Amino acid sequence: MSGSINIGLLGLGTVGSGVVRILEQNGTAIAQKLGQPLRIKRILVRDLKRHRQVAVDPSLLTADPEAILDDPEIPIVVEVMGGTGAAREYILQAFSRGKNVVTANKDLLALYGKELFDAAAVHGVDLLFEASVGGGIPIIHPLKECLAGNRIRQVMGIVNGTTNYILTKMSREKRDFANVLHEAITLGYAEADPAADIEGDDAARKMAILASIAFSTRITYPDVYREGISRITVDDINYAADLGYAIKLLGLAREDSEGIEVRVHPALVPLNHPLAAVSDVFNAIFVEGDAVGETMFYGRGAGSLPTASAVVGDIMEAARNIAHRTSGRIACTCFYDKPIKPMGATITRYYLRLIVVDRPGVLASIAGVFGDREVGLASVIQERMLGELAELVLITHRVREQNLQDALQMLADLPVVKEIACILRVEGGETR
Amino acid sequence: MSGSINIGLLGLGTVGSGVVRILEQNGTAIAQKLGQPLRIKRILVRDLKRHRQVAVDPSLLTADPEAILDDPEIPIVVEVMGGTGAAREYILQAFSRGKNVVTANKDLLALYGKELFDAAAVHGVDLLFEASVGGGIPIIHPLKECLAGNRIRQVMGIVNGTTNYILTKMSREKRDFANVLHEAITLGYAEADPAADIEGDDAARKMAILASIAFSTRITYPDVYREGISRITVDDINYAADLGYAIKLLGLAREDSEGIEVRVHPALVPLNHPLAAVSDVFNAIFVEGDAVGETMFYGRGAGSLPTASAVVGDIMEAARNIAHRTSGRIACTCFYDKPIKPMGATITRYYLRLIVVDRPGVLASIAGVFGDREVGLASVIQERMLGELAELVLITHRVREQNLQDALQMLADLPVVKEIACILRVEGGETR
User: Fold this and answer.
1) Among candidates B158, B169, B164, which has minimal Cα distance to B203?
2) Is the Cβ pair A317, B147 closer than 8 Å?
3) Which CATH number does the domain A344-426 belong to among 3.40.190.10, 3.30.70.260, 2.60.40.10, 3.40.50.150?
4) A33 tagged catalytic
């Protein structure tokens, strides 16, 4: 067995601690698989004195990035510090010094992916990022390599564990959003500032990364349409269940002749769709290709050891490439420049909940508005009476988003329509 | 873009036709991804005149294997002819002439894996086999690379589409095994000779391959214990459903301090387990690792284009390795030699259905036998009367298989026990 391969770790938080733990626990088998052991040579931390989640030799810790970036004996830098400031700088510096980089940083990739991949290519080094989407779930490599013979039709993902946990709890325990969110924060399942999760920003970053690979064109975070889950009510979850659907925060990426659409929003998913059964903090990415048909990748989308599992897989890949002198072997595959479809041009079905005056002829005038805008109604259910008002739940046929928005605008102007209480897309059925 | 990479196809049946189709449909994008196009140079067929599932230039067809094996311009041989005779010879010859091989041949790998991988290593070439398990589902690469940092605890798979289709139909339509099998053969979902599927042989071959990778030790087909599904009745499916379980043909591979167990048999799986929802011809492989936790890979486990999707992914991998001069990059990882656990030493829960004489004291004597052999009973349900007889459904606690078998032997000798009508394992719960 030849000498060890040195790793410099940037960050020793949740994911970094997991990497240290895996290399300790499974280091022997990993060395057997690689033909040489992996060794963490230095770890960049902000505070040398802080208590750590994992026991490490204090002499490994450094507060000076140059101790890693300037060490010619470290060919692999693992960036698990997060953020888009220093992390970006350090990665670019690592590249310029011929080092390979493994990162879990979705924020960075979803914004600066092109810059980073271009820099890696210039220096002929690896930029590996399996951990950036779906935590420990293998999805980047399968999509980029195993499924590379396919034209990908769509990627649908439950890629945020916090929101999936909240929606699962709301659905099982019939508790409202604010109540479950509060509990999730208390239990540590949601951040104290939960906006990035519940507004869909985190999921949007992951979808930008997945869509870029799936369609071989650069999609960045601002390209992704997003809506969060804060307006979902238990009533909507119940009505959806009655109609045979679960409500999930879905990431969607599709391609058709008009371009690429990438969006994150809550959606009704048929209960018989594999994504509907993905509960609690679990993530799953459903990929449809022209050859492979429907596939799904399921597992824990976050957490110290699951995310570190993906990081270690990538470190091993980088180590193999170093041993075979093929660093930079699979570079960026965004060789197309495809247009992004405006949201108004997307086509899907909608679930609508309206509060209307309960009076003869009301349904006819509502149906008339939809008809005017060519919005077909698949089902209309009067759910319950609210004094003089009635609650209507409608599911549309497939319709262009712009037509639906126009119809809703006209509905809002009808005196008999008191409130458009909920608008949700229905996904996971036929797409053509 | 540099010159094309030539491929020799051994076989033009279901999978071979799929490979031709994918390279036709998606050849341009594939060439972009690789930096050079793939080109099928020759195709070995038995009968040059036979009608083909796909249109190919007749000049590509040959009945002479040497036209491929002896062509120095063909660096990648794709073996999709099946069988363990000529296929094995051709692959060994291809290796000896420095060619890389992509195969979908599970029968061959599950029997002659060691010989083939050793030969590939000697000649420094690739032997890639993503298509051998789970059709188009990426599972070999994820297990071998993305999850390589994990100690794998267990692999549980629904890896045979025919039996999953039959069990799904029996469960949904309450039709008996023979009836559904007959229909499946008529519709082409099952082979005219369905033994390899319904007796679990096909699943056992796939589990031998998965277990070898998961535990880094060579498991061959004869090492795998197997039971088929032909004795499953609709009654058992109904009782299982009442108790909260689905019946699936499961492949299981586990490691503990006593060694490796690999087995294929029908089993009760809790309805809230991700595998329980895998229906029809779909396959799924559930992998549990010490770092990643629970993951699952889902998709079509057979069929022309799905299987060809995996083959084309492997061809692209072989082509990249040729371009980078790193063929043989990831060799066999069976570097341990772990013992196979005898079935008697395996531990699980059991579902039992007994036909007994309906008389006071009968239950006590049955319970006594189980108690003698230290078989704990989790639940005992008297399901229905059959004249003077009663049907008992029991679920045991976790018990060593040998103890259960001993108890069943003693039960069979009790005059009040008329029949041990069904014995099924219960899996997918706690394993420790």
Assistant:
1) B158
2) no
3) 3.30.70.260
4) no
Give the C-alpha separation, B358 to B120, whole Å: 64
Which of B26, B32, B216 lies closest to A150 in CB terms? B26
Q: What is the pLDDT of residue B1?
A: 54
CATH number of this structure's domain B343-426, picked from the four choices 3.40.50.300, 3.30.70.260, 3.40.50.1000, 1.10.10.10 = 3.30.70.260
Which residues in chain A have their CB less than 8 angstroms from residue B26's CB?
A: 149-151, 290-291
Instruction: Just list the catalytic residues of B.
Output: 206
For residue range A156-166, list pLDDT tens digits in order: 999 999 999 99
pLDDT at position A2, please? 64
**Residue range A253-300, pLDDT digits in tens:** 999 999 999 999 999 999 999 999 999 999 999 999 999 999 999 999
pLDDT of amino acid B396? 97
Give B333's contacts in chain A (Cβ within 8 Å).
32-33
Which chain A residues have a beta carbon less than 8 Å from that of B316? 145, 148-149
Q: Domain ranges for chain B, please list them.
A: 5-136+304-323, 140-300, 343-426
Given B146, B290, B309, which is nearest A147 (Cβ)? B309
Question: Residue B432 pLDDT more than 50?
Answer: no
Test B294 with A290 for CB contact under 8 angstroms: no
pTM to 2 decimals? 0.97
Contact B293 A306 (CB under 8 A): yes
DSSP string across A329-359: -S-----B-PPBPPGGG-EEEEEEEEEEE--
The beta strand positions in B114-244, using DSSP E, are: 127-128, 152-158, 225-226
DSSP class of residue A293? E
pLDDT in tens, A315-353: 999 999 999 999 999 888 899 999 999 999 999 999 999
3-state secondary structure of A76: strand
Helix/strand/coil for A327: coil
Instruction: Select from A151, A293, A335 the Cβ nearest to the Cβ of B26.
Output: A151
Query: Mind giving me the DSSP string for B267-283?
Result: EEEETTSGGGG--TTEE
**Domain A5-136+304-323, what fold?**
Rossmann fold (3.40.50)
